[in-house]
Structure formats: C-alpha cells, structure tokens
Amino acid sequence: MFILLATLSVGIVAGSYVAHGVRGQEKQNDSADATPLKVVNSPVQPNEFVKIAKTVGPAVVNINTQTLPKQSANKNRRNFHGRVQPNPQNPQNPQNPQNPQNPDDEDQQQGGGDDGGQGNFQDFFNRFFGQGPEGGDDGDQGGGGGVRESLGSGFIVDAKGYIITNNHVVDKADKIYVKLSTDPDNQDFGRPARVIGTDKATDLAVIKIETNTALPTVKLGNSDTSNVGDWVEAIGSPFTLSQTVTAGIISAKNRTIEPGVAGQFQHFIQTDAAINPGNSGGPLLNMNGEVIGVNTAIFTQSAGYQGIGFAMPSNTVAEVYNDLISPSHKVVRGSIGIQFRQGLSGAVNRVYGFKNGVLVQQVQPNGPADKAGLKPGDIITTLDGRSIKDGDDLVGEIASRRPGSTIRLGFMRDGKPQDATVTIGDRDKVFADLGQQQSNAAPDNGGQPGEAKLGIVVHDAPPQITAKLHQQGVAIQSVRSGSFGDLYGLEPGLVIIRINKLPTTTKEQFDAVVTKLKSGDDVVLEVLDPRRPNDGINYIGGTLQ
After folding, report:
1. Does the annotation count 345 as an active-site position?
2. What is the pLDDT of residues 211-264, one digit of tens each?
3. Cβ(99)–Cβ(91) below 8 Å
4. Is 385 buried (19+), middle (13-18) or exposed (0-12) by CB count in 10 A?
5. Which of 13, 133, 250, 453 places its Cα 20 to 30 Å from the Cα of 107?
6. What distance in Å separates the CA atoms of residue 307 and residue 299, rounded to the nearest whole number?
7. What does the alpha-carbon distance between residue 189 and residue 200 come to, in Å, rounded to a whole number?
8. Neighbouring residues of 410: CB distance < 8 A, sequence distance ≥ 6
9. Concatenated DSSP letters for 416-472?
10. DSSP reduced 3-state for 64
11. What does DSSP assign to residue 59?
C-alpha cells in the first residue's frame, strides 16, 4: 500500500510541474514563516458507545482452539451445517450454487438433509481463514497436515467462569483456550477451557474456565423488545484484534438464512454493525449495555464485510444456556411427529379453505400425532386455543414444550373442525425413530397426466408402486417444458393421488377431473414420490393459465 501511495504521489507532482509550466524551477526550501501546531486539550464527553465498551469489554473474551491432524477420507471443505464450502479462488464452483434451491421446511423433520451450498451465507471461520492442501472441516490458519488453529470470541455470563460462544467456534476442537482482556498480550494461548454443552440447532455452546476470583460478566437483555432501527454495538476479536468495537443498527429481525431443518431454530437479528472473522461468538449489545444477540454469521459476496451480519437473539440464547448447564447438558425440544411443507402457494390455501395454519404432509406412524388421530391433509389451526399462524409458529410452540406434557390441537379435516389432545415427545427420539424407518426405504420410478391443460402425460401407477405407497394413483410419464406441470416442479415418476381433493386413483378418474379444469382455476395436486415413500404427501398447487 505504501509503495502504491508513493507511486501515486510522484505521478501527481510530475503532472503538476508539466501543467503549470514550471518544470526545472526550484524554490528555496524555507519554512521560517510556518506556525508550529499545538494539541488542543478540550475534553470530549463520552457517548453511550464509549460507556458500553468500557463496561462490557472486560467480560468479552478471545477464544483460541487447536485441532490436531486426523486422517479423513472426506477432503471437501464443509461449514458448521455440513454444507460444502466454496473455493475462494473459484467462486463459481458448481458444488456451491449462489442461489441454492430451498428444500421443504418441515416441522419435526428428520434432521440432516442433502449437502448443498449456502450461497453467500457463511459462518466466519470457514469463509475467511485459509486452508492447506489437505483441506479441513473447520476454518483454520495452519492448514496442511499440522495443527489447525481457529479464533473466535465469547462473553462471560457467570462469574465462576461460564462463557457463551458459537458451537462452530469450538466444534471438533481438541484444545480450547480463553484469553481475558486483562491477560498479558505475550501470553501464548490463554487459559484452558472445557465444553459444558453444545447445541448445533442454534449454533450455541457453553464453555468454562477455572478461576479463583470472580470474573466480570455481562447482562442479557430482552431481544423481543428490540426494534428495527435500534442502535447496537458489537465487541469481539476480528482477525485476532481483540477488544474491537463496532456499531450500527438492527436492520431486520426474525431472519432465517438457511432453508429447511438447518434453519428451523435459527431466527436471527440482522445488523449492519461491522462483523468479521473472529467476531463469531461475541456479543451484540443494546444501548443499555445488555447482550441481545450472539454474533454468528455474515452475508458476503467478496469474502469481506458487506454490512449484513446475523446474531442469535438473547431470548433463545438464555433458553439454550439453561438447558446446557443442566445435569443432562443438552437441549430438549418437543415434537409431535408430523411433517409439513412451508410456504404453500395461495392456490393450496384457497382450495383447502384456510388462510392461517399448517397443512400436515405426513404423520409418523406410532408418533405422538398418529396416536392422537391426526392424518395427512389435516390443517392445524390452533394450539391450546391460540391461533397458529404458520409452520414456524407451530414449531416454536411445540419445541418449547417438555416431553410428556400435553397440548390441545384444533384442526380442520374435510372442512370440519376437530380437536385432539397430543402428548409431546422428545424431538431427538422422534427423529431417531423416523430416521430408522426411512433407512429402509428404497428408490423407484413410475409415470403420467393431462397433456392439453397440465402438460403432463400419466398412466395407472403399477402395482409395485401402489404397494410401496399404500395409495392408488396415476404416475407421471412425461412433463412438457414450459407447461403448468413443469412450472410447478412435477417430474416423471411422481404419483398423483388427488386433484383439488378429488381422487385420481385411475387414469379415467384423472382425466375426468382434469377435463373440468379451466383457465383461472386454482389447481392443487396431492403427489407422492415412490423414491421417498416415507416423505408423505406433497401439495403442489397454482393457478391454471
């Protein structure tokens, strides 16, 4: 940089001589008439940012982790959600689309999911820190086959040495060190720390250092009462620069940056306070000096700060922390064993007659909802008498309930209101049972529908397919490019069992239903995928042009 500036200065001076026609003329270097500068000693009143930095700074820590080299067959670089990371030198890597397709959002979905790109949403370490030729699972500074070191931030919430940070800061680390603001700069690593508990669903972790004296702590504020436009301050150790303070505003709330299960419990505060690699796990503070979020992720197209960062809200942090310091050291979430598709089209809502609520896609056999009598196609509208807005509302409410407790669900079935008492199950156990069932599923194919109106050709689903699905229907044989079926994601092999709630168990029934459709009609198809028979019914709908 200094060379560049010097070069620019020479060019500017040379140009000045030529422009003014004074080339070769020199003026005597006399500065006798210059007045020496004096520093004005006028006090500046500290603003709120200064006060917060002085008050909270001592409780913000630098976290350094070491991961010992391990033999691994997987050489792909992955982030903390298991997504393949882009190659910084090749942002067009086809394994990492900039606009990844959104999978279904499902309540109590079976965890996991396909690997896919996060586009421009990245956690700090994997997005910025380099890696050696062997790659690595976490962001590292070392690379190669040696010890990998990662840096992050955290903050002390208990004077006995309990610290909150991000799970991806400490995940897979063999050694964790914490450096306080009062520790000497020449100290190599810091104080050794141990993991108390982690929660991947919210990317939070609790670690602890041993101390003989009470440590400074932060206070947690109420993130629910924060507003878009409120001033906020971030403190952390970006690029190893400890105790760095940045400020901005809350630019959005309740922001989900990953589709499907990965983002089911991640509803972030969005901020334009500068957040960079190393801030991960540090606090986002309101103007009372209270922590209202844990800085977790950024959006970037250039591997640098671009004004959009994400922090896990403090109300979620408090709930997770209390579970992680409990004797079980794990977060327990409720589940009723259903799946649903998030973001259904308006056509589906109109045909099935609801504005708010959740259309059940699948009910896990022998799960809590199944035992209570719920079925695919039911529309859950209330929980304990309170109206359910959407899937996020239902997931949040059920997940907060303890296993063994009961809820009263109101739902619509065939246009008639019903209700049922459901006993909440343990989400981890429900997922484990569902995953075991799905591991027995095998792929398959099939084919057909109404070429003239829907752009699809169908035929009766063969016996082996209907036996697998336990449903009669017509199988899609082909889909015309640019047609209704193509536009709404139909593909060969899928089986249509109903259109607008009317059965299509045979091609004759299908043809009879399709024949009556006309331009402007809402069309909703209930579709099964023989390759994934346990996924349940997909409701695909739109308006016929």
Report:
1. no
2. 999 999 999 999 999 999 999 999 988 887 888 899 999 999 988 877 666 677
3. no
4. exposed
5. 250
6. 8
7. 26
8. 380, 381, 382, 383, 385, 417, 418, 419
9. EEEEEEEE-EEHHHHHHHHHHHHTT-------B--HHHHSEEEEEPPHHHHHHHTS-
10. strand
11. G
Q: What's the pLDDT score for residue 52?
A: 93
Closest CA to 394 of 438, 357, 443: 357
Backbone angles phi, psi at 394, to 5 degrees: -65, -45
pLDDT, one tens digit per residue, over 285-311 is: 999 999 999 999 887 776 567 788 999
CA 191 from centroid of its chain's CA atoms: 31
State the pairing for strand pair 148-158/191-199.
Answer: unpaired
Q: How many CB atoms within 10 Å of residue 461?
A: 29
* Total length of the chain: 545
* Active-site annotation holder among 140, 199, 203, 272: 203
Tokens describing residue 502: 């009317």
- Assess whether 42 carries a catalytic annotation: no
Greater pLDDT, 112 or 192: 192
Residues 294/312, Cβ–Cβ less than 8 Å: yes
Strand partners, 542: 523
Catalytic residue, chosen from 168, 223, 226, 392, is 168
> What is residue 90's DSSP assignment?
B
Tokens encoding 37: 């500068």
Respond yes or no: is residue 171 known to be catalytic: no
Q: In terms of pLDDT, which residue wins out, 86 or 408?
A: 408
Higher pLDDT, residue 158 or 260: 158
